[in-house]
């Protein structure tokens, strides 16, 4: 999960104490603060941005001004597959919230890590018949190098939102999907995450190929044109943690990652990942 530095906007601070803010207004403030991505699975939301109050699954009609700390954005898949309808305030600390706790970093003890791996994909029918084949997907995992308490909370968070889909059995490492759900693609997060991984790998290959061109060797600044295009592609696709993982594993060039995924592009300030908490990104090979 992308670490978030969710700054309260001045207009929110100006609301009188006790005022309830309509959900649509609060939603727009969150989009400005943390970008148009699900705060949990990191899919791009587009027109499907949903306000999420950490204490409840259902979207309220309005929220108190004082609840800014409890607000994030959620996609339809994460909301639909939540395993808890409501949480009490004392249970919030059982999970990792990207605006309040360590979530993803480029350090070896990051609570979450992202890995591409093969998995048996089984389509089941009502008559008990099964169709099985192997596929590769990118899974979000609990990092075994993280501390025990972070591992516990990371596992709880993955389970709360079923981040690897409700059809994945982690104990057996298998995906079993009813045929009707398979045909309707009722949970698209694994596919979107994997597509982002594939595009990130292709982008790394283009960077390497471009560096072999004589004109780029003579003028390295030309590479920044490709960096700008990769920024636009990643911004449009989402799954920032996947892009960061692939580029760091393949290149391990801090300046390149900062330029592509952290800085605000001069040519188009709208193309950046708003609200990213830079302070959590301690640089070390995963």
Task: Indicate the topology.
Layout: H1 10-13, E1 20-22, H2 23-34, E2 50-53, E3 62-64, E4 71-74, H3 76-80, E5 112-124, E6 130-142, H4 148-161, E7 168-169, E8 174-178, H5 179-184, H6 189-211, H7 214-218, H8 223-237, H9 240-250, H10 254-262
Parallel strand pairs: 5-8
Antiparallel strand pairs: 1-3, 2-4, 5-6, 7-8
Word description of this protein:
This protein is α+β, with helices and mostly antiparallel strands. The protein has three domains: 85 residues, no CATH class; 73 residues, Ubiquitin-like (UB roll), CATH 3.10.20; 92 residues, no CATH class. 36% of the residues lie in helices and 16% in strands. The chain contains ten helices and eight strands. The strands form three sheets. It has a four-stranded mixed β-sheet with strand order 6-5-8-7. It has a two-stranded antiparallel sheet with strand order 1-3. Strands 2-4 form a two-stranded antiparallel sheet. Strand 7 and strand 8 form a beta hairpin. Helix 6 packs parallel to helix 9. The longest helix is centred in the C-terminal third of the chain and has 23 residues. It starts with 9 loop residues before the first helix and ends in a 24-residue tail after the last helix.
């Amino acid at each position: 999960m992308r670490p978030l530095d969710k700054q309260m906007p001045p207009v929110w601070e100006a609301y009188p104490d006790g005022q309830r803010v309509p959900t649509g207004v609060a939603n727009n403030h969150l989009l400005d603060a943390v970008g148009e991505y699900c705060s949990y699975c990191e899919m791009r939301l587009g027109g499907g941005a949903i306000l999420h109050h950490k204490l409840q699954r259902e979207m309220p009609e309005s929220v108190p001004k004082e609840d800014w700390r409890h607000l994030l954005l959620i996609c339809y898949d994460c909301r639909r597959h939540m395993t808890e309808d409501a949480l009490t305030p004392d249970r919030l600390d059982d999970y990792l919230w990207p605006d309040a706790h360590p979530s993803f970093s480029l350090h070896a003890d990051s609570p979450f890590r992202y890995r591409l791996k093969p998995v048996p994909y089984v389509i089941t029918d009502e008559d008990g018949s099964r169709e099985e084949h192997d596929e590769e997907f990118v899974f979000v995992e609990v990092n075994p190098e993280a501390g025990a308490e972070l591992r516990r909370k990371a596992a709880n968070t993955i389970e709360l939102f079923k981040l690897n889909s409700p059809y994945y059995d982690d104990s057996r490492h298998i995906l079993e999907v009813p045929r009707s759900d398979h045909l309707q693609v009722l949970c698209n997060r694994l596919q979107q995450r994997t597509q982002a991984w594939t595009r990130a790998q292709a982008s790394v290959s283009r960077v390497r190929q471009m560096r072999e061109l004589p004109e780029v060797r003579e003028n390295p600044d030309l590479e920044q044109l490709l960096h700008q295009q990769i920024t636009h592609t990643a911004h449009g696709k989402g799954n920032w943690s996947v892009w960061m993982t692939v580029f760091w594993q393949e290149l391990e060039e801090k300046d390149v990652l900062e330029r592509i995924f952290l800085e605000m592009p001069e040519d188009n300030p709208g193309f950046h990942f708003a609200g990213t908490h830079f302070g959590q990104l301690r640089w070390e090979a995963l």
